[in-house]
Amino acid sequence: KQRIFSGVQPSGNLTLGNYLGAIRNWVGLQKNYESIFCVVDLHAITVWQDPEQLRKATREVAAGMIASGVDPKECIIFNQSQVPAHAELAWIFNCVARLGWLNRMTQFKEKAGKNRERASSGLYVYPNLMAADIMIYKATHVPVGEDQKQHLELARDIAQKFNNDYGVDFFPMVEPLILGEAKRVMSLRDGNSKMSKSDPSDNSRINMTDDRDTIAKKIRKAKTDSEPMAETPDGLEGRAEAKNLISIFAALSDRSVADICTEYGGQGFAQFKSDLADLSVSVLGPITEEMKRLCDEKTYIDQVLKEGSEKARKISDPILKDVHKIVGFLQS
Ligand code: AQP
């Protein structure tokens, strides 16, 4: 079996973007790949996290994965900080990646904002840690949302430079798996920015912990334009908000965007929004309930993460050992 790795940051509530862009796709992949899924807490602290909140969010993200159908018996589920090899390989990658490469990363520019001088150095080298997350298992495929494409290209550059510099054929060239009809779910308030856990406006996103009324209200209030709904996907060009809502509908109902356009084309948004709210509640409702139940069973989640990290270490330790040999670290 080929090996996949993917992760989610415990940096707030899981969103519909995390679900459709990543977690839901993992469920379909876990049978065919050896799967390693990680709650990336080292990544989360690149921006300030309250320690108590971080522990809570770590359990919540793990619960969200399991409630969505990621099976801890089938896959490895753990939190990153319990496997120190991630941070160790990241240091080596800090010495492989070039500043020029990191300077091109758009996520750093977006997250650091205008006051770049005050961003943490961790935020800047975030993509090197992400490359290490993947390479420490020699994973070949990474199922992610479209926003992570640039970071994955950087991971390939790092692997290639490492292989060239040391004259080895050690790290594989990783491939992204960007799947589904909602590869990049956008904010409900602004069709040009990504739906994100850390957006200050709660109305911009659907949280996986939102109740039925909150979901319905957020969708009713979601920004649209004044044109009737498009009859074909081409008619969605230049209509970011409408395109976003229709893509979400398509992904949640396992139908194509074209199919949704055929059904609702020519109408106003009211009926569509009401149906989208019902659909969202019917898909997310059972997951939310199961997530809550699992979060009340802290010991179960902690046990899954502990066992997962033991399994992960069994794979990563020998790979890190080989890397030490390749780099020339004396092993006495
Ligand atoms: N809006 C999105 N649409 C599709 N996929 C998305 N992902 C995130 N947002 C969307 C995918 O979810 C996985 C986990 O993401 P992450 O937690 O590592 O961080 P992120 O991409 O930075 O997500 P957020 O929600 O925006 O978190 P914050 O606000 O903390 O930065 C990834 O596979 C990502 O592609």
Task: Describe the fold and architecture.
Residues 190-213 are annotated as: Disordered. ATP binds at residues 9-11, 17-18, 145-147, 185, 194-198. InterPro entries: aa-tRNA-synth_I_CS, aa-tRNA-synth_Ic, Rossmann-like_a/b/a_fold, Trp-tRNA-ligase, Trp-tRNA-ligase_bac-type, Trp-tRNA_synthetase. There is one protein chain. With 332 residues, this protein is mainly alpha-helical. It is built from 13 helices and 5 strands. It has 2 domains: 3-183 and 298-327, HUPs (Rossmann fold), CATH 3.40.50; 209-292, Tyrosyl-Transfer RNA Synthetase. The strands form 2 sheets. A 3-stranded parallel sheet has the order 1-2-3. The protein has a two-stranded parallel sheet with strand order 4-5. α4 packs across α7, α9 (212-221) runs antiparallel to α12 (270-296) and α10 (240-253) crosses α12 (270-296). The two termini are 34 Å apart. The relative contact order is 0.15. The model has no long low-confidence stretch (mean pLDDT 96). The structure holds adenosine-5'-tetraphosphate. Adenosine-5'-tetraphosphate (AQP) binds at residues 7-9, 11-12, 15, 17-18, 21-22, 144-145, 147-148, 184-185, 194-198.
